[in-house]
Amino acid sequence: MIEDIEPGKVWDALVADPKAQVCDVRTDAEWNFVGIPDLHSLGREPVLIPWQVYPTMQRNGGFLDHLREAGLTPETPIYFLCRSGARSLAAAQAAAAAGFTQVYNIADGFEGPLDPEGHRGKVGGWKAQGLPWQQR
Questions:
Q1: Distance (Å, rounded) from C-alpha 82 to C-alpha 105?
Q2: Torsion of CA 66, 72, 75, 76, to 10 degrees
Q3: Is 40 exposed, middle or buried (0-12, 13-18, 19+ CB in 10 A)?
Q4: CATH at 75
Q5: How far is CA 43 from CA 6, 14, 17, 40, in A?
Q6: How many domains does the chain have?
Q7: Shortest CA distance to 105 belongs to which of 79, 126, 127?
Q8: Of the candidates 130, 99, 97, 125, which has an alpha carbon nearest to the alpha carbon of residue 111?
């Protein structure tokens, strides 16, 4: 079972462990138009590997190969991130099934659930917790 970790605790884990990585599994469009976690103060960048390929949203058949090509090993602590936590959970499950032993899902993702007005980024998730992020 993949553990959901709230974004603030993920940040603490990234600070504590220089080997820990964030793998953002959203699409190119989301990275470019919504933003990405800013890990520069920790001396790293998020690993950007789409779980689904825009615009067809077909599953990325090379996802696991891309993880390895990015230098992530089965022992690397990897915190998977998407918009709200669903795609990242699927990606973490696939990584675990492939032998990655320290995989986690970032609860509520980058933007979190919808607020009462139908907007994301204010109720939960990376952005709502005030963690560093940037536009690309």
A1: 9
A2: -120
A3: exposed
A4: 3.40.250.10
A5: 21, 10, 12, 5
A6: 1
A7: 79
A8: 125
Contact status, residue 50 vs residue 26, Cβ threshold 8 Å: yes
Q: What does the pLDDT profile of the chain (136 residues) look like in tens digits?
A: 999 999 999 999 999 999 999 999 999 999 999 999 999 999 999 999 999 998 999 999 999 999 999 999 999 999 999 999 999 999 999 999 999 999 999 999 999 999 999 999 999 999 999 999 999 8
Phi, psi dihedral angles at 75 (to 5 degrees): -95, -10
What's the domain range around 56?
Answer: 3-134
Q: Which two tokens stand for residue 72?
A: 């992530």
The alpha-helical segments, DSSP class H, found in the chain are 7-16, 28-33, 63-69, 86-97
Cα angle 120, 113, 28 (rounded to 5 degrees) comes to 60
Q: Are 24 and 87 in contact (CB under 8 A)?
A: no
Quick check: pTM over 0.90? yes
Tokens 């709502």, residue located = 128
Tokens of 97: 């099934």
What residue has token string 């990584």? 95
